[in-house]
Amino acid sequence: xxxxxxxxxxxxxxxxxxxxxxxxxxxxxxxxxxxxxxxxxxxxxxxxxxxxxxxxxxxxxxxxxxxxxxxxxxxxxxxxxxxxxxxxxxxxxxxxxxxxxxxxxxxxxxxxxxxxxxxxxxxxxxxxxxxxxxxxxxxxxxxxxxxxxxxxxxxxxxxxxxxxxxxxxxxxxxxxxxxxxxxxxxxxxxxxxxxxxxxxxxxxxxxxxxxxxxxxxxxxxxxxxxxxxxxxxxxxxxxxxxxxxxxxxxxxxxxxxxxxxxxxxxxxxxxxxxxxxxxxxxxxxxxxxxxxxxxxxxxxxxxxxxxxxxxxxxxxxxxxxxxxxxxxxxxxxxxxxxxxxxxxxxxxxxxxxxxxxxxxxxxxxxxxxxxxxxxxxxxxxxxxxxxxxxxxxxxxxxxxxxxxxxxxxxxxxxxxxxxxxxxxxxxxxxxxxxxxxxxxxxxxxxxxxxxxxxxxxxxxxxxxxxxxxxxxxxxxxxxxxxxxxxxxxxxxxxxxxxxxxxxxxxxxxxxxxxxxxxxxxxxxxxxxxxxxxxxxxxxxxxxxxxxxxxxxxxxxxxxxxxxxxxxxxxxxxxxxxxxxxxxxxxxxxxxxxxxxxxxxxxxxxxxxxxxxxxxxxxxxxxxxxxxxxxxxxxxxxxxxxxxxxxxxxxxxxxxxxxxxxxxxxxxxxxxxxxxxxxxxxxxxxxxxxxxxxxxxxxxxxxxxxxxxxxxxxxxxxxxxxxxxxxxxxxxxxxxxxxxxxxxxxxxxxxxxxxxxxxxxxxxxxxxxxxxxxxxxxxxxxxxxxxxxxxxxxxxxxxxxxxxxxxxxxxxxxxxxxxxxxxxxxxxxxxxxxxxxxxxxxxxxxxxxxxxxxxxxxxxxxxxxxxxxxxxxxxxxxxxxxxxxxxxxxxxxxxxxxxxxxxxxxxxxxxxxxxxxxxxxxxxxxxxxxxxxxxxxxxxxxxxxxxxxxxxxxxxxxxxxxxxxxxxxxxxxxxxxxxxxxxxxxxxxxxxxxxxxxxxxxxxxxxxxxxxxxxxxxxxxxxxxxxxxxxxxxxxxxxxxxxxxxxxxxxxxxxxxxxxxxxxxxxxxxxxxxxxxxxxxxxxxxxxxxxxxxxxxxxxxxxxxxxxxxxxxxxxxxxxxxxxxxxxxxxxxxxxxxxxxxxxxxxxxxxxxxxxxxxxxxxxxxxxxxxxxxxxxxxxxxxxxxxxxxxxxxxxxxxxxxxxxxxxxxxxxxxxxxxxxxxxxxxxxxxxxxxxxxxxxxxxxxxxxxxxxxxxxxxxxxxxxxxxxxxxxxxxxxxxxxxxxxxxxxxxxxxxxxxxxxxxxxxxxxxxxxxxxxxxxxxxxx
Length: 1325
What we know:
By secondary structure, the protein is α/β, with parallel strands linked by helices. 35% of the residues lie in helices and 20% in strands. A 7-stranded mixed β-sheet has the order 41-43-42-44-45-46-47, sandwiched between helices. Residues 1-25, 988-1000, 1224-1229 and 1321-1325 have low confidence and may be disordered. Residues 1002-1077 form the Carrier domain.
C-alpha cells in the first residue's frame, strides 16, 4: 500500500464512520476564564528549547513594516488594544504545573509602544538606522513565563513616513499569524474608530489547544509513526557541510543571518517548472536547497527539516497562534541526478510527509530512539521554509522579509527561510556561528541563488555539472587568491649551487659530526674525484647509480658525486627489507651501486657494479676539479613512495624543480653563512634534499646525525645544542615527543622549526610556541611536487584549525571537484598541483600511472601540467589552504606516505589468505594500521606468520600494528568495507574496557585513583581499569620516564624503571607508592615472561637501564621467558663491584629460574657481569646453559700488554656512556648519573679470573659512534681469550647502540635463538 493510498483509506474510514476531517467551530467548547491549558505539540517543542537555552532569542519572530505616513499616536494605541482584546495569544502566560507546561489568559492590558525619531537624518542613513533599530529589537530575549510575549515599536522617518517593528515569541504565533495580524492592524488604523470595530466570532487559540489535547486520534498517530520509523530507519545522515571549525560538544545557539533575494525572473521559471511537474514552488525551491547541501557536503541521502502550516482544520485559519509543524523530509537523490529528477524525488517526499503529519515531530523522535547530543539535532541539521506573503492589503504599507538579518542566533547548522512576494523570493539564510563565519554564510547564500538560477536554466542537466559560483568568482579563485611566477634559475644539476658556494668560501665548514669536519673545499674535492671515477666507468645522463649506505659523510659525498657525473641517484636505505631492496634495484636497473660499511651486506648480487666508498684509493688520483656533465631536464633522483599495486613506485624528479623549491624556501626562511642544519632524515625521502642541499647552497654547515639515531629525540636535542643548529625539520609525530622531553634552556639556537608530512595539530602548535623560541613552519607537498605550500604558524591558542599556508610562487594549486571544475572558497575538493617547473617528470617505468596522475593543466599556459594529489583540501577566503584528509585510501603515518592497498596486496598474496583490508585507526592520539584478514576455506593463517612474511617485503613503518582474522569483510551500501563494523569488533591495541564491567575492580583507595589519573595523562587514554598494565596500554621507553616524573611530583616517591616493569598495573604501582620504601628493591625486570619456557636474562650495560632490551625481548618472547636486570640505586650496599652485582643478581634469579634452562646475555659492561654470574652459578652446581656478551670490552686488567691496559682504562674513563648506550643521563636525573659512575668504577677495578666455560662474543660490525679511542676488535678478542679460552666470536649488524634496534634487533634475536637451541641440543646429547 502506498502512502497516498493510506491517506485515502483513512479518509474513507472517516466518511463511513460519519466523521469529518475537522470539527465545526461551534462544536469547539470554550475554555473557562482562568483555566490552565496544556501546550500544543508545536508549543511544547518551542517551550523546551526556550527553557534549555533561556538566554537565547532564537524563537523571536520580528519584522519591519514601512508606512507612507506616521500614524496618530492615540489611534495607534487604540488599534493595538483591539488586537489584544481579540487575540488571546497576545495575552498568554506560560508556566509549569507538576512539571508540565501550561498556558493561561492573563487578561487584557494596555500595550507598551516604544517610539524612535529619525526625522532629522538623510533618507539613506535613516533607512539604515531603522534596520539597526529593528535588529536590536529582535535580539531582546522574550521569556515564555514573562508576558507580554510580543513587542511593538514605531520609528518616525523623514518626510512624514514611519516604520513599525512588530515581533513576538514563536510560542504564541507563527508567520501566518504575523501576516494576518499586520493586515488586521492596518485595517484598524484606517478605520474611523478602531475600538468600536466588532470582534470576530469563533474559537480562540486556547479553545483550540484544549480541544486538540482532548481529541487525540491514537490509531492515526500509530499509522503515522509506522511510516516515520520506516522512512527514518537506519543510521541517519549527519549533515557534513564544510565548516570553518569543528562542531562543539554543546551548541551555543549563536548564529549569523544574511539576506537572500531572488528576482521575479527566476521565480517565474521556478513556477513554470513546478507546473510542468505538477508540484509546487515549495518543492522546487526545496529541491534546489537539497542539491546545494548535497554538493557542499558530498551526500546524496539528506534529511531536511520542513515546516508545514499545521492548520488542519478549516476554523484554524482565522486563529492567531502557533500551529506550525516540523517534519523530517528525507530524500536520497539518484547518482548523477538531474534537477528534474531531484524535483520529482523531493515531490514524493513532501507528499508522503503531508499525508503523515498528524503525529507530532517530537513523538517521532522519541519513537526513533536516536542518540541525543547537545551539539547536533538528532534527526536533521538543515531546515527549510517557504511561505507566501502578499503584504498588507492597504496601500501605503510594505514589508521586506529579508530586511532583518541580525537575530544573532541559529537553531540548526543551516536554515533557509523564504517568502514569496510580488518582487520575487526574499528571506534569510541562517547558519550556526559555532561552525561558520559570517563570510561563509554570505557565500552559501550567493551559491544558492546562483545555483537555483542555473538549475532552472537547464533542469535536465546533471546537478553536479552546474557550477556553484559565478564566472567572476571562479576567476578570482583560480588566479586572484595567490600569485604565480614561473621559476627562473640557471642551474642544471643539484651540485651547481653548491659549487658556487665552494668558490665563495672553500675553507668554511660544510659537514660536521662524529666523523669530524669537512670544509666546502674538501667535500667538493672528494665528490669531484668520485664523480670523475664514475664518469670514466660510464655514468652520465640517462644512467642510474644506486646508493646503499648509512648516514654519514660518505653518503653526502656520493649524492653530490652522482649529480656532478650527470647521473641519477637512487637511494636505498640499508634498513629496508632485503626483498624491497632487491625489487628497487631490479626496477631501476642501475649500472653502479655505491655502498659503505655494513650496508655492503645489504646489496644483492646483480648486473650492477658495486663500488665501496670505504676505500677511495681507486679514484684518489682523479681530478679534484668540477666536471661539466650536467644537461637540462635530466632526472636527478628517483625516490620511492608507496604504491597501490603492492609494489612501490619511483618518482622521477629533476634538479630544476628541486632547486626552485629550495630557492623559494631560502627567500622565506633563510640560512646564513655560519648557520647549521641537521641531517637526520633518511635520504630515501624528499625532505632529505632540504637537509643535504639547502644549507650547502647558502654557506651554512650540516651537522650529520649518527645512523639509527634520528628517532631519539633526546639525541636530537643534544645535537641541536652541541652544534647550535638554527633550522631543523621534524615531522609532527616526532616533534610532539621532542617537545614533551625538552627541558628548559635547550635548543635555544633554533630559529626555524619546519614540520610537515602529516597534520600539525593545535596541541602541537601551542606546545611548540610554548616550549621553543623558534618559529614553527607548517608545510605541505607530496614527493611528486616538493614544497607546495607553507606558512609560519601564528600564535593562535584555542583555534582548532592549523592551516597549510599559501602556495609558493612556483606552483598554482587548484582545488577541483570530480568534474575538474574549481570549487568555491571554503568548499572541499581535490588538490591539483600545477607548475611549469617543480613537478616530477612522472613515475619511472610507470607510463600508465604517470598519465593517470600527471594531467594537462586546463587553467595554465600551454604545456603546463598538474599533479592529482588525492588530498582533500579547501581554500580560505584569504588564499590560505587547509588540509582535510585523503580522498582515497592513501594516508601518512608518522610522516611516511602509505597506500594501505599496497599492504593489502602483500598480505593477500600469502598462503591461506583470501582477502585483506587495512584501515587506519587512531588510539591515544596516535595513528596506526590495523589489518583484517579473511582466510581461505579450510585455512587457519597465523597473524604472527602473516606479519613476519609481510616484514620481508615492507619497511617497518608500513607494517600493521594488529592483524585480526575475521570471518568476512562487512561492506556498506556502496560495496566498500564497512569501517565502523570492522572496528566495532576489533580488539584495540592496549585493549581498554569501554565501560566498567561487573567484575572490573574499582579503586581501592585514593592512591589508586590518583595513579589511574597519572596513567591517563601520560598515556593519553580516557578509560582504564586498575588491572590494566602500563605497557599493554601503549606505554614505551620514553613514557616510562614521564610516568616516573609524574609519580615523583604527585606522590613525592621516586620510582625506578624496574618497578614500572615489575608492577606495571595501576593497582600494583599504587601499592609500590603506598608501601614502605627501601633500598632492597628487586632488580629483575620481566620483559616478556612466559611460564614454563627457558629463561633468558639480559644484563644491563654501564648505564644500568633495562629499557634498551624491550624491542629485542618482543622478538624472543613466547618461546623464551625474557627478563632483564636493572642496576640497583646509587646508595644500595653491596653493589660496588662486578662480583657483588653478579652475586646479587644470581640470588634474584633463583626463584624465577627454578630448575629450567638459563641463558645470560650481557651488553657492554653487562658482559663482564654475565661472565661472573656464570662462574658463580657453576660454583653453586647450577650452571647456566649459555653465556653471551654483546659488544663487550674486556676489563683493562685482562689486557695482554701495559699499553693495551692503559688504552682500555683511558677509553673507559673518557667514554660518554650515555651517548654510547643511547641514554640521556643529563635529563634522567642524578641517580642514574651516580649509578653510571659507580658502574664505571666497578668495571675499571674488575680483575676477572680465568674460566673454562664457553662464552659467545657477538661484536658489532660498525664502530662505536663516539669520538673516544676504543680498543680494536682484535685487541678485544685477544684479551677475552686470556680469560675465556673457549670463546666463540661472531659479528652482528649495527653498531654498539643500533644492534638492539629495528631490523638489527630481529637479526640478533635469530642469533640468540640459534645459540639457545644449540646449547639445549648439546645438553640433551
